[in-house]
Write a structure and sequence with these properties.
Layout: H1 2-28, H2 37-48, H3 51-84, H4 86-101, H5 104-114, H6 120-142, H7 146-154, H8 159-197, H9 203-212, H10 216-247
Helix pairs in contact: 2-10, 3-4, 3-6, 3-8, 3-9, 4-6, 5-6, 5-8, 6-8, 8-9, 8-10, 9-10
Amino acid sequence: MRIFSLIIKKIVVAAFWFIVWDIAARIVGSSIILVGPVETFGRLFALTGTTAFWSRINYSLLRIMLGFVLSLGVGVLLAVACHNSKIIRDLITPLINVIKSIPVVSFALLAIFWISRDYMSVFIAFVTVLPIVFFNTQKGIENTDEKLIEMADVFRVGIFKKIKHIYVPLVMPFVISAAASGLGFAWKAGIAAEVIGFSRSSIGGGLHEARNFLLTADLLAWTIAIVVLAWAMEKVIFFLFGRFKKWQ
């Protein structure tokens, strides 16, 4: 009964905002400035029936998620290295702080000169999420209970068992938190990079074309597709983390 009421509540909320959206579109009265939900979802349905739509989805999905996964791996490894070495910490931490402070658009514009357009979204997703993962993981390691470490040392617990049974369970929530917040940033930054670099085969390329030809319905349809993809990837990532925790 509770689940049913929750579903009804979500439907009512969604219906409310669709009505607001439709009223706003009618008040504006211009399909160039704003189109209603019927036109937008109709256009989205039409796009899903084309090969180009799925080709662009696959293109962007693979590259943005690659950048995201790389940022997770590199961010965790750098945090561990900084924890174990003061020299590495003194060298790496300022660099990560600089990366954190640089606007995405600056990285995207520089990336045009540095790398191929085909890999811009990989690079931008990586540098956007890297600081989030690094600092969250660092915080998790620093919050590890020293008494547990001392107890493990007393009983001469091996390094691998120590990592598996002490560090991983305590640090993992911080990594999951970083993944949760970083995934959304990866999609926003990655798509922005595709638009700036005008990668024709990508979702960003679809947005760029929609803007150039004043196709507002296409622009909103692609935006909805991005939101759905980001939501779906978030569910996949949390599922994988859940499986990892069970295995661990």
